[in-house]
Amino acid sequence: MKIKKIVDLSQQIHEQTQVYPGDPQPDFQPIATIERDGYNLLQVCMGSQSGTHADAPYHFAKEGKTIEECDLSLFVGEGIIIPVLGKQPREPITLEEICPYLSQMTPGKIVVLHTGWSDYNGTDQYFSHPYLSVEAAQAMLDRGIRTFALDTISIDDTGSNEYPVHHMIARDGGVIIENLTNLAAIDFPQPFFSLLPIKLSGADGAPMRAVAIQFA
Ligand SMILES: [Zn+2]
């Protein structure tokens, strides 16, 4: 099997990375330097959900799986990209927009909602993103989808204190991938996604290097 193309879908993590309101800002401190110690080493302090990351069911369900307990098959697989570009700020993604794609949805597929909102990353507008409606989420859960990925900072409305879609997906043992970027660079059919979070113990979520792969 040969790889023809790898598209990086990950945000850069640095001290100015835009984080969810209330989350800690990443902080990098050099612990060793080549000048002093002969090698470079950083101390990295950051929230479990900074940058491109996965939410485990435990994020919203006390008895839900933590990130290292999640089945890895949730994070790799063939994706269905649903373009929902041109939405207004804080506009829901509706069941009607999802409907044409429902027939392709089978267990194991990864749903990727492409809103284009990653263009606003680093600005206040990034928080006023479109979000997934409860009806659309339920229809996809009913088709057996357990991996929901998108290019916004949350799958729910960040302006609200309620997290209905997070709760629904957590209840069904699904995962959410947030803060994807560069989705427009996927210019080939049937992209294969690798969205593997790092193995943080007992964590609600974890950062990842997210990529889409085209096989030759
Ligand atoms: Zn989330």
Strand content: 25-35%
| Percentage of residues in helical conformation | 10-25%
Bound molecules: zinc ion
* CATH homology superfamily name: Putative cyclase
Largest sheet: 9 strands, mixed
Mean pLDDT, rounded to whole units? 97
Oligomer: single chain
Structural domains: how many:
1
Query: Any idea what the radius of gyration is?
Result: 17 Å
Helices, by number, come to: 4
Q: How are helices and strands ordered from N to C?
A: EEHEEEEHEEHEHEEEE
Distance between the termini: 7 Å
Write the CATH architecture name: 3-Layer(bba) Sandwich
Order of strands across the widest beta sheet? 1-13-11-5-7-9-10-4-12
Shape: globular
Brief overview, please?
The protein is α/β, with parallel strands linked by helices and 216 residues long. It contains four helices and 13 strands.
